[in-house]
């Protein structure tokens, strides 16, 4: 009977060990991938504090620690203006896009009107078109409307994004209809239902989309390069590109400029990482 008891317990012990070993393997894999992803950013940050003679020495820790690179970036070049342009453009696009995208997604998810599914399919199909394909037509339209070399030319074309509408629509389809029906019974119209009920429940997904939109427009390069040639409208990525052209051998200045551009985005991600995770979790609940 003892042998029978041991034979019955053996599969249970083995069954408990397998999840532990698989979890350990996944943890090790996650740590390795994280280190591979973080190392270039860490090396960029530490190298931005090196001198010109030691910036390419291959050491992670600077031997000659200096802040002169950042002082040069902000004194010799209007880098603060570049930062302000990128921040202003990204913030306006993010706020306006989330407002219009959420309304469009709510209409596509809840309102009944002819051609709704075809309209959504058309919007979704634009995800299959790469930005370089529409670059020249977009430039011609912006020129005809007089939007070149202006903040409007940098903001308006970037507001529409099919990905945001698609993600918000999927999120709204997962919301319980009972809350909206109760609001309608109380006399609320579509606008009040959207503003007082749907929008407050959308904070997790809106927070994640805000990060995505802000980051995408903060890193925008091709369209600002095509749409502007005014120095006062230069964004941060164009400023870094000009650094690479003017200071080809001065990698300490280039890395300092890249660090200034990257640190705000890293801080933004760490502050709102919980909302990003929650949006991914809730967007899949039906």
Describe the structure.
This protein has helices at residues 2-47, 68-76, 79-110, 116-125, 131-144, 151-155, 162-173, 177-185, 190-201, 203-218, 222-227, 236-246, 251-283. With 286 residues, it is mainly α. The chain has 13 helices and no strands. The model has no long low-confidence stretch (mean pLDDT 84). The longest helix has 46 residues, at 2-47. Helix 2 (68-76) packs across helix 13 (251-283), helix 8 (177-185) packs antiparallel against helix 9 (190-201) and helix 12 runs antiparallel to helix 13.
Structural class: mainly alpha
Mean of residue pLDDT? 84
Count the beta strands.
0
Number of helices: 13
The helix-strand sequence is HHHHHHHHHHHHH
Helix coverage percent of residues?
over 70%
Poorly predicted segments: none
Largest sheet composition: none
Shape: globular
Residue fraction in strands: under 5%
Radius of gyration in whole Å, from Cα?
A: 26 Å
Q: Please report the distance between the alpha carbons of the first and last residues.
A: 50 Å
List keywords for this structure.
mainly alpha, 286 residues
Q: What is the fold's blueprint, element by element?
A:
Blueprint: H1 2-47, H2 68-76, H3 79-110, H4 116-125, H5 131-144, H6 151-155, H7 162-173, H8 177-185, H9 190-201, H10 203-218, H11 222-227, H12 236-246, H13 251-283
Helix pairs in contact: 1-13, 2-13, 3-7, 3-10, 3-12, 4-7, 8-9, 10-13, 12-13
């Amino acid at each position: 009977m003892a042998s029978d008891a041991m034979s019955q317990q053996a599969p249970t012990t083995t069954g408990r060990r397998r999840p532990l070993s698989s979890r350990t393997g996944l943890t090790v894999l996650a740590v390795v991938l994280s280190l591979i992803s973080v190392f270039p950013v860490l090396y960029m940050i530490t190298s931005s504090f090196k001198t010109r003679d030691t910036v390419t020495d291959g050491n992670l820790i600077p031997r000659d620690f200096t802040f002169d690179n950042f002082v040069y970036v902000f004194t010799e070049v209007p880098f603060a203006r570049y930062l302000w342009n990128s921040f202003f453009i990204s913030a306006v696009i993010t706020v306006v896009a989330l407002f219009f995208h959420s309304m469009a997604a709510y209409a596509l998810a809840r309102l009944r009107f002819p051609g709704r599914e075809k309209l959504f399919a058309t919007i979704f199909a634009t995800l299959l078109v790469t930005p370089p394909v529409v670059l020249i037509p977009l430039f011609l339209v912006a020129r005809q409307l007089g939007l070149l070399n202006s903040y409007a030319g940098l903001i308006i074309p970037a507001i529409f994004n099919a990905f945001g509408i698609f993600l918000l629509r999927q999120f709204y389809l997962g919301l319980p209809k009972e809350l909206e029906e109760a609001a309608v019974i109380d006399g609320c119209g579509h606008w009040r239902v959207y503003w007082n009920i749907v929008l407050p429940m959308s904070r997790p997904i809106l927070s994640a989309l805000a990060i995505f939109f802000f980051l995408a427009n903060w890193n925008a390069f091709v369209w600002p390069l095509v749409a502007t040639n005014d120095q006062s409208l230069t964004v941060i990525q164009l400023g870094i590109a000009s650094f690479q052209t003017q200071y080809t051998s001065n990698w300490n200045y280039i890395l300092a400029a890249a660090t200034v551009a990257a640190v705000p985005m890293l801080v933004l991600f760490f502050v709102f990482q919980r909302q990003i995770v929650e949006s991914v979790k809730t967007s899949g609940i039906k």
